Automatic annotation (TrEMBL):
SUPFAM superfamilies: Nucleotide-diphospho-sugar transferases (SSF53448). Keywords: Disulfide bond. It comes from Sousa chinensis. The lineage of its organism: Eukaryota, Metazoa, Chordata, Craniata, Vertebrata. This is Glycosyltransferase 2-like domain-containing protein. Coiled coil: none annotated.
Length: 256
């Protein structure tokens, strides 16, 4: 009932199920034009897609077979947003809850960097506090701080042993958390980035990206590059990738 009051949908079926492209009728397409220009993605279509929709598990078979300790550190997931579509934010939250083992998820922290959209104020808070009581916290910045300072505000209230920072337009696949937390448990100085697939902005289709190394240029731009030859030669896609990166841009993210 909570999602219906916001005009949103829950459950694993419906449009976009399985990460397939979602579509609108001709009449709906006309209604979608304004919101699409406002957000840079099809927010009207997003409202027609379930907050819990199923998406593909693109992990290599060997990754799915890995076993991890039950005694892994807990993670605080921090989402940063400013005037993001409510349906997209809530799908990020639902996806994190649905695909992170309960004993590993300490909390979800939503950091609002001074949004002025009314639906991101009381409606958002009332929903997450009733739907996930005690699990989701909302932090409000009184003025626009920018991405990095907003992340720091989220970190200040986090209580998990590990903090994970994400944009508020992501969907998680099963098994994303265990390898991340396992490698941090081995060495607490590590900064880990999972493999990232793409969600198309017009259809919300989930698009698989090949495994790649990640890092930053000297200008601190996020960079991607094909894994080095010795990684491919090892024939084990579950191994971490370490390399000198180069450029590729991306938008919506699906951590796996």
């Amino acid at each position: 009932g909570l999602s219906k009051s916001l005009g949103l949908i829950e459950g694993y079926g419906g449009r976009g199920k399985g990460g397939l492209p979602a579509t609108l009728s001709p009449a709906e397409e006309e209604k979608a034009k304004g919101p699409h220009e406002k957000y840079g993605y099809n927010s009207y279509l997003s409202e027609k897609i379930s907050l819990d929709r199923s998406i593909p598990d693109y992990r290599p078979t060997k990754c799915k077979e890995l076993k991890f300790s039950e005694e892994l550190p807990q993670i605080s997931i921090i989402f940063i947003f400013v005037n993001e579509a409510l349906s997209v934010i809530l799908r990020s939250v639902h996806s994190a809850v649905n695909h992170t083992p309960t004993h590993l998820l300490k909390e979800i922290i939503l950091v609002d960097d001074n949004s002025d959209e009314e639906e991101l104020k009381a409606p958002l808070e009332e929903y997450v506090h009733k739907r996930y009581p005690g699990l989701v916290k909302v932090v409000r910045n009184r003025k626009r701080e920018g991405l990095i300072r907003a992340r720091i505000e989220g970190w200040k209230v986090a209580t998990g042993q590990v903090t994970g920072f994400f944009d508020a337009h992501v969907e998680f696949t099963a098994g994303w958390a265990e390898p991340v937390l396992s490698r941090i448990q081995e060495n607490r100085k590590r900064v880990i980035l999972p493999s990232i697939d793409n969600i198309k902005q017009d259809t919300f289709e989930v698009q698989r990206y090949e495994n790649s190394a990640h890092g930053y240029s000297w200008e601190l731009w996020c960079m991607y590059i094909s894994p080095p030859k010795d990684w491919w030669d090892a024939g084990d896609p579950s191994l971490p990738i370490r390399s000198v990166p180069s450029t590729r841009s991306s938008g919506f993210f699906v951590p796996r």
